[in-house]
Write a structure and sequence with these properties.
The complex is a heterodimer.
Chain A: H1 2-10, E1 12-14, H2 16-41, H3 62-81, H4 85-102, H5 109-122, E2 141-143, H6 145-166, H7 169-173, H8 175-190, H9 195-201, H10 204-224, H11 230-247, H12 253-261, E3 272-277, H13 281-293, E4 299-304, E5 315-318, E6 324-326, H14 327-337, H15 345-352, H16 357-360
Parallel strand pairs in A: 3-4
Antiparallel strand pairs in A: 1-2, 3-5, 5-6
Chain B: H1 6-25, E1 45-54, E2 57-60, E3 65-69, E4 75-79, E5 95-97, H2 102-118, E6 126-136, E7 142-148
Antiparallel strand pairs in B: 1-2, 1-5, 1-6, 3-4, 6-7
The chains are: A alpha+beta, B alpha+beta.
Chain lengths: 364, 155
């Protein structure tokens, strides 16, 4: 326990992926600021019924609130741009939490989660990548304790959400999901979910099974995102959140969660190599796709002159451990390491398991 | 941003995690369960009917609009939505989705009743506001609740 604590406290690693999470948070904070500005056009919440957690005298005047909203938009832009990003992220979190405390009618779990994660990430070296202009030259290999804490925050969220459902008889039985389906099936259809799929899911037995699956998923994700099950848990989580996004209104929670998932990437860069046959259009296309979708800098992408080993392959991926992946196995590796294609990882990996051994993985 | 030393990291992390766990565990003690990360806690619906207690009886307030005499003896109009703009408790006489659950919305409604009672000083007739709420928790049987604002001093 003590050694684990020491490892967490003293861990250092490449902070490249933290910049990607910071950009996601910045975009969500920007959207949050714009929403607040839009709502201001309909009137200031302090002029009508509101429910502050703080003493009423701490609720800002309309002038001050307008300044806060303007500052939130500006701070979010700084977060995205990576200029004075950490103070901007910290200030965004504090002002956001302050506004929630001024009116709990505006409280939503996704907003609270956004401010919590923002505050934690502001304590991490999230300003060392994805910046327009660097504030100062700082090494990208830096302490990761705060980003690990942000990951722990996600575990708390999953545990709280899954645990509260587990303790609720209506949730366990599927009654809550069944009723939500009944009330909101039209919204799912409007979002592009086929009517037949919605009808199939809007059955009591199916709802009951889905409820148990949702509870099990949240409890699994709480711990599965750490350790050996990490990649599968993250893949499962991506589909879990995309499904929720398609069927419910959760503001930016889907994108917040997926942005935090970046923090679970191994803290290094270009540890894998992708060689491609530049004489084939397919090779060039895959290389270009990987180049543009490799947001976490997982791959060193290089053309090669085909030799005896690589002959016949459009792309070859060299894993961290030096083993090779070609064909569908290489595509599975690309999907595993690129956020844009990550949702395809498990099916590709499953398909790759049916290809002959030398095709999917061969040692150097 | 300040750089936290080894000891400060441990203290901060322990405080943060302890605080978050305390907020989650204590969420049931708050009617709206805020800070508890209870996603999609219920799928309940509710319908609010507002009325006013005046003199010796209760007068319905359809659509949240009512008229009463002001201090000058003139008849004036008020609306529930002058104060309450919330998308759930601001919608009267219609069945709405009770976001975050019935208990959260009843707690908000109680506050709103008191708030409105405090913000119509010129209404010299309404003694208190009464909300009769029908609700269907997770699509179950209809239940009812009656909430009353605090009494107003009517002169």
């Amino acid at each position: 326990m003590e050694s684990a604590l020491r490892r967490w406290r003293d861990e250092i690693g490449d902070a490249y992926a933290l910049g990607a999470t910071r950009v996601v948070l910045g975009v969500l904070l920007f959207a949050n600021g714009l929403r607040a500005a839009r709502e201001l056009q309909d009137g200031y919440f302090g002029d009508v019924f509101h429910w502050p957690l703080l003493p009423e005298s701490w609720v800002p005047s309309i002038t001050v609130y307008k300044l806060i909203v303007a500052a939130q938009v500006l701070l979010a832009a700084l977060v995205v741009a990576g200029y004075r990003a950490r103070p901007a992220l910290f200030a965004s979190a504090v002002t956001g939490a302050y506004v929630l405390a001024c009116d709990r009618l505006q409280f939503h779990h996704n907003r609270w989660a956004l401010f919590c994660i923002s505050l934690l990430l502001s304590l991490s070296p999230c300003d060392r990548s994805f910046y327009v202009t660097p504030d100062r030259v700082a090494p990208r290999v830096a302490p990761l304790w705060a980003s690990r804490l942000a990951q722990a925050q996600l575990t708390i969220i999953y545990l709280a959400s899954g645990g509260s459902k587990l303790l609720d008889a209506d949730w366990r039985s599927g009654q809550v999901i069944f009723e939500r389906m009944r009330l909101y099936s039209h919204a799912a259809v409007d979002s592009g979910v086929p009517q037949a799929v919605v009808d199939a899911f809007a059955q009591p037995d199916v709802a009951s099974a889905l409820a148990k699956l949702a509870i099990a998923t949240e409890l699994f994700l709480a711990f599965g995102i750490w350790g050996r099950t990490r990649v599968f848990a993250l893949w499962w989580g991506v589909w879990f959140h995309l499904t929720i996004e398609a069927t419910s209104r959760v503001e930016g929670f889907t994108w917040l969660t997926l942005g935090v998932y970046f923090l679970f990437a191994t803290p290094d860069v270009r540890a894998r190599k992708l060689f491609f046959d530049s004489s084939r259009w397919r090779g060039k296309l895959i290389a270009r796709l990987v180049f543009f979708s490799d947001w976490l800098a997982r791959f060193e992408v290089k053309p090669w002159a085909p030799d005896a080993v690589r002959k016949g392959h459009t792309v070859v991926v060299v894993r961290r451990d030096g083993s090779l992946a070609t064909g569908i196995g290489a595509l599975a590796m690309v999907a595993r390491a690129t956020p844009l294609f990550f949702a395809l990882w498990a099916p590709l990996q499953f398909l790759a398991s049916f290809t002959r051994g030398g095709e999917t993985s061969s040692k150097n | 941003m300040p750089h936290l030393g080894s000891r400060a990291r441990v203290v901060f992390a322990a405080s943060w995690l302890g605080g978050q766990i305390a907020l989650v565990v204590s969420a049931p003690m708050r009617p709206d369960h805020i800070f508890g990360f209870r996603m999609f806690p219920e799928a309940s619906t509710m319908e609010i009917h507002l009325s006013r207690e005046v003199g010796g009886g209760e007068v319905p307030v359809p659509r949240g609009e009512w008229t009463a005499r002001d201090r000058a003896g003139q008849t004036r109009s008020w609306s529930w939505n002058d104060r309450v703009r919330d998308s759930v408790i601001g919608r009267l006489d219609t069945r709405v989705f009770a976001s975050y659950g019935v208990s959260a919305q009843l707690a908000r409604l109680q506050r709103a009743l008191d708030d409105v009672a405090d913000h119509v000083p010129d209404d010299t007739q309404t003694v208190r506001f009464v909300a009769k709420v029908e609700y269907w928790k997770n699509g179950g049987e209809r239940s009812t609740a009656t909430l009353r604002s605090h009494a107003r001093v009517v002169r």
